[in-house]
Design brief:
159 residues, alpha+beta, 36% helix, globular
């Protein structure tokens, strides 16, 4: 367990989908490798990527991420990549099967949460999530504010 925590502290986050935790209830997360071209990796090393419109789908027993925007590498010549091309995620077969079963249920989807380097490899954290309705979002905000208020009052009593 301590070994994994040390590895997590070495992860260098490239991009996060902050909106996802507000719009979705996260049920399960998976760490996936991602098949990239050389110019894409160089762009990611510069810290340029956007997960805002990204989503993932299971197609023919494989998982692909769509809408992940990785800009073209500026120093590249004619061998550049398309910024929003579909990219294959590298997962174990049983993980793909679990994802497929969950997403076939009503209301579930695959949402990319963060893109990061783990050592020299690029990883994408993907979550099986259920969309929230407007009243669910309001309820989550109210619960979060209530917890903050409790923590704030508990902190003032000690001092």
């Amino acid at each position: 367990m301590a070994k994994q925590k040390a590895a997590d502290s070495n992860d260098r986050v490239i991009a996060q989908n902050r909106r996802a935790r507000h719009d979705f209830d996260i049920e399960q997360t998976y760490e996936a490798g991602i098949a990239l071209l050389g110019s894409e990796v160089k762009t990611l090393r510069a810290g340029k990527a956007n997960l805002g419109d990204a989503y993932a789908l299971v197609r023919n027993g494989e998982v692909f991420v769509y809408g992940l925007h990785i800009p073209e590498y500026q120093q590249s010549s004619y061998q550049n990549h398309e910024p929003t091309r579909p990219r294959k995620l590298l997962l174990h077969g049983d993980e793909i099967h679990k994802m497929q079963l969950k997403t076939e249920q009503q209301g579930y989807t695959l949402v990319p949460l963060r893109l990061y380097f783990k050592g020299n490899r690029v990883k994408l954290q993907v979550a099986v999530a259920r969309g929230r309705k407007r009243h669910d979002k309001r309820q989550a905000i109210a619960e979060r504010e209530a917890k903050r208020e409790i923590q704030r009052r508990a902190g003032t009593r000690r001092g």
